Amino acid sequence: MNWQSMKIEEVLKNLNTDIDKGLDANEVKKRQRIYGKNLIEEEREINFFKKIIEQFSDFMVITLFIAAGISFIVSVVNKNNDYIDSIIILLIVFINAIIGITQEKNAEKAINSLKKLSETPIKVLRSGIEQRVISENIVPGDILLLETGDLICADARLIKTQKLKTEESALTGESLSVSKNENTIFDEKTPIYKIKNMIFSSSFVTSGRSIAVVTATGMKTQVGKIAKLINKNSTPPTPLQTQLNETGKMLSMATMIICCIVFILGLIQKADILEIFMIAVSLAVAAIPEGLPFVVTLALASGVKRMAKKNAIIRKPNSVEALGNANVICTDKTGTLTQNKMSVIEIRNIKGIINDNDAKEIINCSVLCNNAKQKISCISGEPTEKALLEKAIELNISKNSLEKEMPRIKEIPFDSSRKIMTTVHKTKNRFITITKGAPDFLLELCTKYKKGEQVFNLSKNSLKDIKNNYEIMASRALRVLAMAYKETTIENTNENNFTFLGLVGIADPIRSGARKAVRLCKEAHVKPVMITGDHILTAKAVARELEIIKKDSEAISGSQLDKIGQKDLEKNIFSYSLFARVLPEHKMRIVKAFQSRNAIVIMTGDGVNDGPALKAANIGCAMGISGTDVAKSVSDMVLTDDNFSTIVETICQGRGIYENIKKTIHFLLSTNIGEIVVIFCACLFHLPAPLLAIHLLWINFVTDSFPALALGMDPIESNIIKTKPSDPSQKILSGTMGLNIMTEGLGIGITAIIVFIIGSNLFDNYPLEPIVGRTMAFVSLGLSQLIHAFNVRSKKSIFKTGILTNKKLVAAVIFCAILQIIVTLIPVLNTIFKTVNLDFPQWCIVLAATTIPIIISEIEKFAIRNKYA
User: Fold this and answer.
1) Name one GO cellular component term (predicted).
2) Which of 1, 73, 270, 405 is the most exposed, fewest CB within 10 Å of its CB?
């Protein structure tokens, strides 16, 4: 029902409850059977075995299972009972699965955090007696008795209020407390942030008292509706997840095709079927980059550690690379771009801005006409009054001392119709009446104004000057309060004949570093978008100050958004940079509209209302300090400092990590193609096997893996933030990267096969068993790949990058080179790997061959530089 559209009598009648008695125990039990507990329903948790299956459903992982099977078949055919390769491959797969399951934080925890609301005892009226009841036992029709500080556990229609204000920012995004009034009636289509005669679950009372009747509990509340939206949405896969999956499919299909070609060529050449099968198996082993998923996982895990040091806790490792590809940040205003703390920004008198010393009389009055309480460690009260009191403390003005000198004897409370608050204070021989409130209302009660120590009559011109100052402040979206007073010899509560003192401008200040962060966003080709529940004028002022918008046409309100169809929104979404007065449904629409245009969206939030959009975004980013449990639970990243600047820093880190992963993929695929070329060429030209299966597995697991891990931890380039994020629709192997991988792989492979031919023809006595040529090809291929790791670090020349800038890579290359050489020196290893000790001329040929990858890479980089020069 539309409770906000009904009169109080109708609401009570429809809910069949009594304002003076509430419900009795029997009626409560009856209603609990009908409506259930006041809880948020949990989404059914995914079965543990299903989670395991999901970890193994990735195509690259399936490919690794195939590789393990192939390796097992090789061992069976050779009858050597050597299953270590199969075990290693399976071990990699299961380690990845364990990491994935332990890192995963399911969004269902959001529902559990909402349940925490049920732990709060609530004061209700039942059978005419005030009782404390656990909120999960609240039912529709219960009469709530609320006062300052109480958490509101259900949606309710107000019956009686006394200066009631509630904080609804977690639900609506509105940063200011909302004044409530039971008498006003609202249309059924009225947005939630405009409904003043109702209170809502998850908000709390900031000041005043009220009696209200519960209209909805559990999943029927506004919070419950948001929980349903959270359950319906899922985070889309990251670009890397999608691209690795596609790459795995492509590699597997290509491997199968090449294996079939090799097998057919062997049959045509009338080779032994078992021998052909073994060659095809070797080719399959060479083609599959067994270490790739493991290396990517460790690179992402390294990124998680890096970002934790930058005040960003990453809950899902894949979000690290998604951050690097982000090109839209949808950010909340309050607490992220601003400090989420109302502060006095400036004070003016009739002539304009005045300094703190000249403003002390204005602040003195604002402290006396103020209900905020100053305690030892904190200030409690309504945000605007807290801001006035904090300004007084900054100026060493003590509220307690002032109240001792001029005790309050009477108060006329703030009223939404009068827009002012008045207090009367007594001194030794006189009375002082102070009023504060909206300038438009207060100025009508003034007849004089004070400038310095002198008082003047308020003329049309002086009134015009005051209003000009007010308009200047209002245009900057400051919340403006006017201060006035009068002195009398008798107690006087008449609100007239006041002397105007000045104007106080209050706002939520811009965070330190926010302006610079927005500029960096634009340099990084990332569009900053502000989404807030605040009034559009307030939001525009902040957005302009931060240079998020330049024109009014870039801003749109929630009510305007309702009139635009989703297709039109998607078409024009990049025209908007500010969305104000939005609801949870609006945030969802905005995120999906950007995603429909291939944008990778970061969504920030701290409230319950942000939950659905946080889950639907590519990267949900919650505030660690001010954020609700709901926001944190559904997010991919939590900021421990609630700072927008931290998001920009994580984009920089994410972009660098994504580039490192691309380097790793580049390195592994190009080296694997080199291995394929060696085997394929040998088969094509009917040569003896230049490499054995054990050689290929050694190279893949040792010579490739350690440098690949070091590449995944490559230092991030200083200008990485200025590079464009990758297009998510573009495949990882498209463009120059795919061409480079093929060219470099061909160069490495052809070089190794040439070394094999030279070695077997010049140094082997037994051409059918070319042990020297095979050793030379094995060592040459391994060392070439190690040198190639330095080529893929940067698009710059290897001589300009600086080899020593990645000490981990240098160490990995030296370590692997030593292992590669040892295999040829130690007799026991010679027997296992079927290698021999090379002499000086043979080593000269091998070492000369290792320079080929550098030459090929330098030619590529030179050609690319000239193309884009």
Assistant:
1) plasma membrane
2) 270
Half-sphere exposure at residue 411, Cβ-oriented, CA atoms within 13 angstroms: 12
pLDDT at 777 > cutoff 90: yes
Gap between the terminal Cα atoms of the chain: 67
Reduced to 3 states (helix: H, G, I; strand: E, B; else coil), residue 603 is strand
What token pair was written down for 743?
A: 């060219």
Task: Output the CA torsion sign for 463, 464, 466, 470.
Answer: positive
Residue 478 burial (CB < 10 Å; 0-12/13-18/19+)?
buried
Unique residue bearing structure tokens 């100050």: 545
Residue 215 contacts residue 1 (beta carbons within 8 Å): yes
Radius of gyration of the CA atoms of the chain, in A: 36
Name which of 4-13, 430-439, 469-478, 783-792 the model is least confident about.
469-478
Give me 788's structure tokens.
Answer: 């190639």
Structure tokens at 565: 């169809």
The 10s digit of each residue's pLDDT in 363-401 is: 999 999 998 887 766 787 788 899 999 999 999 999 989
The two tokens of residue 542 are: 């902040």
Per the CB < 8 A criterion, the answer to whether 35 and 218 are in contact is yes
Strands of 601-605's sheet in order across: 312-314, 637-639, 619-623, 601-605, 328-331, 527-531, 578-580, 555-557
Name the amino acid, one letter, at 108: E
Alpha-carbon distance values, 680 to 30, 42, 276, 683, 834 (Å): 78, 56, 12, 5, 21
Contacts of 135 (CB under 8 A, 6+ apart): 38, 117, 118, 119, 120, 121, 122, 153, 154
Helix 644-684 vs helix 239-268: crossing angle, to nearest 10 = 0
Q: Tell whether the model's pLDDT for residue 244 goes beyond 90.
A: no
Is the confidence at residue 797, as pLDDT, over 90?
A: no
Confidence of residue 61 (pLDDT cuts 50, 70, 90): low
Q: Are 821 and 779 in contact (CB under 8 A)?
A: yes
Q: Is 147 strand, coil or helix?
A: strand
pLDDT in tens, 630-681: 677 678 888 888 788 888 888 888 888 888 888 888 898 888 888 888 888 8
Q: Which residues are marked as active site?
A: 332
Sign of the alpha-carbon torsion through 318, 298, 524, 740:
negative
Name the amino acid, one letter, at 323.
L
How far apart CA 501 and CA 484 sit, in angstroms, is 5
Q: What is the DSSP string of 396-455?
A: T--HHHHHHHS-EEEEE---TTT-EEEEEEE-SS-EEEEEEE-HHHHGGGEEEEEETTEE
Query: Which residues are within 8 A (CB) of 855 and not within 5 positions of it... i.e. 6 or more apart?
Result: none
Which pairs with CB-CB distance under 8 Å and at least 24 residues apart come from 695-699? 695/774, 695/778, 695/833, 696/282, 696/285, 696/286, 697/71, 697/85, 697/285, 698/782, 698/823, 698/833, 699/671, 699/675, 699/778, 699/781, 699/782, 699/785
C-beta atoms surrounding 113 within 10 Å: 18
Rounded to whole angstroms, what are the CA distances from 338 to 167, 168, 510, 848? Answer: 17, 18, 4, 61
pLDDT tens digits for 678-697?
888 887 787 888 887 678 77
Question: Looking at the predicted structure, is the pLDDT value of residue 406 above 90?
Answer: yes
CB atoms within 10 A of CB 489: 8
| Kind plus residue range of the DSSP H or E element containing 735 | helix 735-763
In this structure, what token pair is assigned to residue 68? 């393990």
Residue 477 is encoded by which pair of tokens? 């979206």
580 token code pair: 């104000």
Look at the block and give the residue holding tokens 């003005």.
Answer: 397
For residue 241 the two structure tokens come to: 């997840």
The stretches of 292-423 forming alpha helices (DSSP H) are: 292-308, 318-325, 360-368, 383-394, 399-405
Determine contact, residues 741/676, Cβ cutoff 8 Å. Answer: no
